[in-house]
């Protein structure tokens, strides 16, 4: 399996996510960019999650902040401030995050510094799941056997003391 380079002009890998992309700021989705996808890519899937939530991992292994799927393979980035809703202007779909919304939900850790993993997958197919049913679990199941490449960007965030 090939590796995809995933980056953001807003923060460096393992760096602090700027507050404008969090619940303490404007709660905008950050800009995400990626390198060349492999030949045969039909769609891309992006999942942003926080594995550091203070809940038992057998109940909720990670808090899902953002799901975007069926991203057209000719795109090389998602600009910041993607709107809420099931379908984006580029025809990509947004699945349900842990708040049960079809939107980006920024970092908002209750305490301490949390890690936020943005995973990107290049697929040899499009996903035929409706946005209402597009959870991380459903997408991972639909993606089985179709992943050509994947990459990851990790940022961190800790809320400022008030």
Q: Into which percentage range does the β-strand content fall? A: 25-35%
Structural class designation: mainly beta
* Percentage of residues assigned to helices: under 10%
Number of strands: 9
Number of helices: 1
Element-level helix/strand string: EEEEEEEEHE
Determine the N-to-C terminus distance: 45 Å
Number of domains: 1
* Outline: globular
The average pLDDT score comes to: 95
CATH topology: Phosphatidylethanolamine-binding Protein
Largest beta-sheet characterization: 6 strands, mixed
Q: Considering the protein shown, what is the CATH homologous superfamily?
A: PEBP-like
Low-confidence residue ranges = none
Which CATH architecture?
Alpha-Beta Complex
Regarding CATH, which class? Alpha Beta
* Rg value: 15 Å
Read across the widest sheet, the strand sequence of neighbours is 1-9-8-4-5-7
Helix-strand blueprint:
Layout: E1 2-3, E2 6-7, E3 32-34, E4 43-50, E5 63-71, E6 77-78, E7 93-94, E8 113-123, H1 136-143, E9 147-158
Parallel strand pairs: 1-9
Antiparallel strand pairs: 2-3, 3-6, 4-5, 4-8, 5-7, 8-9
